[in-house]
Design goal:
41% of the residues lie in helices and 13% in strands. By secondary structure, it is an alpha/beta fold. It has a five-stranded mixed β-sheet with strand order 4-5-6-7-8, with helices on one face. Helix 3 crosses helix 5, helix 4 packs across helix 5 and helix 5 runs parallel beside helix 6. The protein is elongated and about 70 Å long.
Length: 263
């Protein structure tokens, strides 16, 4: 068994695939470096991180696969599931071997895995677009914190860039410890160093003066539109899973709004 290590990025994965073919590794597994704990029965190869290599693999896939299939590959990669690299490599090998005539072969374990996993990632992408709740900070920036199962930040940024084009905002993934920041013109990936008394679980000290009052009004709105006689907890949790509630103001204890008067 040949273990090929890469840096955890999409380009790095494609570089690892390039090396699998370049060095003719017939029995290989691709593993991100942060998840590798050693293997006594495998030799280790560190993938060469060269953009020309990743581009060559990607262009080769684009030539033989449909846009839907290449998009599904990328979404499945964003799942970050432990077995994803093995299935992606098997899918890619199958694609090159068959000239791409395999996209609908759901009898193949890796084709089925890519299709189903891509759907799960896409479903969570839509959930994040619906469940993001921004909080205004004292400097006029809008911040939101999410903790998705999959790494969906790269595919939700176009939605928020189009919808909030006239505002500065940041969406931070507390699980993966990085975020995306929009400065009014472009979106960039960012890392954050939080100051004392402020972290991803409590940015209240950095709130704009009326942010708490707006959150309270949001809570009251949800309470007022709720019809107790039609309460269906099972259906509610199905559409809004409990794991997302920690970042939703409407799911926090209700407080009375108190706006700061303008001088």
């Amino acid at each position: 068994m040949q273990t090929v290590l890469y840096d955890g990025s999409w380009d790095g994965f494609l570089c690892a695939v390039f090396d699998v073919y370049e060095y003719k590794f017939t029995d290989a597994q691709i593993v991100p470096e942060h998840r590798f704990n050693g293997n006594l029965f495998a030799t280790v190869h560190h993938a060469r991180m060269e953009q020309a290599h990743s581009q060559r693999v990607w262009k080769g896939l684009e030539r033989i696969l449909s846009v839907e299939a290449t998009t599904a590959l990328y979404r499945a990669f964003l799942s970050e599931e432990a077995e994803s690299e093995d299935h992606l490599l098997a899918y890619i090998r199958y694609a090159f071997a068959s000239g791409g005539n395999m996209e609908d072969d759901l009898g193949h374990a890796s084709v089925l895995y890519v299709v189903q996993t891509a759907r799960r990632v896409w479903r969570e992408k839509h959930r994040m677009e619906a469940f993001v709740r921004f909080q205004e900070t004292a400097d006029g920036m809008y911040c939101a914190f999410i903790e998705p199962d999959h790494d969906v930040l790269p595919i939700i940024s176009p939605h928020f860039e189009a919808r909030y084009a006239d505002q500065r905002w940041m969406i931070y993934d507390t699980r993966r410890k990085y975020g995306i920041y929009y400065d009014g013109s472009t979106v960039a990936e960012v890392d954050i160093s939080f100051e004392d008394k402020i972290d991803e679980h409590n940015i209240a000290p950095a709130h704009a003066p009326n942010e708490a009052a707006y959150q309270a009004l949001w809570q009251q709105y949800f309470k007022s539109v709720n019809i107790a006689a039609r309460k269906n907890t099972k259906l509610h949790v199905q559409h809004m899973p409990r794991r997302y509630w920690k970042n939703l103001p409407e799911k926090q204890p209700t407080v009375a709004p108190a706006f700061t008067k303008k001088k």
